[in-house]
Amino acid sequence: MTQASARHILVDTEDQCTQLKQAIENGADFAQVAKENSRCPSSHDGGNLGTFGRGQMVREFDEVVFSAPVGVVQGPVKTQFGYHLVEVTSRQD
User: What is the pLDDT of residues 12-33, one digit of tens each?
Assistant: First the structure.
């Protein structure tokens, strides 16, 4: 089964998500941005979600994690929880 590792930042608005993505693309550290802005408990670990398989995350999140290139920040990704920036840190079959 394909496994992936990812980290994310979860915020309430698409606008905030877009602003944070721009900051990261301009050189801000993903983990630091997660610690300062994400409302997910994973923020304490820089947004790190660990390793998981297909179907373990909500559908919208799953689709991004198992199709996006590794190391490229994706988003905003809207789910029932809010808006995410997602970075796949590794993926293996």
Answer: 999 999 999 999 999 999 999 9
Q: What is the mean pLDDT of the chain?
A: 97
Q: Which domains does the chain have, with CATH numbers?
A: 3-92 (3.10.50.40)
Instruction: Measure the CA–CA gap between 38 and 32, rounded to whole angstroms.
Output: 10
- What does pTM read for this prediction? 0.95
Beta strands in 12-66 (DSSP E): 48-53
Provide the residue count of the chain. Answer: 93
CB atoms within 10 A of CB 63: 13
Q: What is the H or E stretch that residue 86 is in?
A: strand 82-92
Residues 6+ apart with CB under 8 A from 53: 1, 2, 3, 4
CA distance 60 to 64: 7
The helix (H) or strand (E) run that includes residue 16 is helix 14-25
